[in-house]
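Below is a filled-in request sheet from our internal design queue. Each sheet records the structural input a requester submitted and the sequence that came back. We keep these sheets so that new team members can see what a complete request looks like end to end.

REQUESTER: design group, bay 2
PRIORITY: normal
MODE: inverse folding
CHAIN LENGTH: 117
BACKBONE (tokenized):
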């Protein structure tokens, strides 16, 4: 059974960089042909796909967030991370990591991140 767990600070100040980690258990992030995604949901809004890192380390980003987003991985820890720079209160959301194998089949429980001074 694959499990994903998000971790990171719940409060970030405006203009700072938001950093979250997704720890994966029950499966390797290097297994062909899975993609590992970051998705967020602002309060009262729908899900927004932010980006992904593939089994081979290739990265993909939402065009609207690309300039502020970096997704990386640590294969030795079976983790992948999200960095979102220059955050504003509009980046307040529940952040999820999820696995994609043509569809999103496993999700983390989500972590609330609030951007506020």
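RETURNED SEQUENCE:
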């Amino acid at each position: 059974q694959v499990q994903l767990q998000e971790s990171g600070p719940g409060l970030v100040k405006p203009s700072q960089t938001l950093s979250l980690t997704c720890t994966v258990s029950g499966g390797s992030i290097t297994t062909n042909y899975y993609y590992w995604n970051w998705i967020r949901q602002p309060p009262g809004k729908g899900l927004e796909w932010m980006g992904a890192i593939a089994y081979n380390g290739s990265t993909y980003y939402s065009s609207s967030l690309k300039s502020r987003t970096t997704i990386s991985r640590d294969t030795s820890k079976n983790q992948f991370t999200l960095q979102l720079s220059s955050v504003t209160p509009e980046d307040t959301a529940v952040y999820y990591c999820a696995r994609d194998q043509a569809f999103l089949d496993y999700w983390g429980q989500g972590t609330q991140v609030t951007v506020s001074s």
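SHEET NOTES:
- Residues 62 and 107 are 19 Å apart (CA to CA).
- The first strand starts at residue 3 and ends at 7.
FILED BY: M.R.
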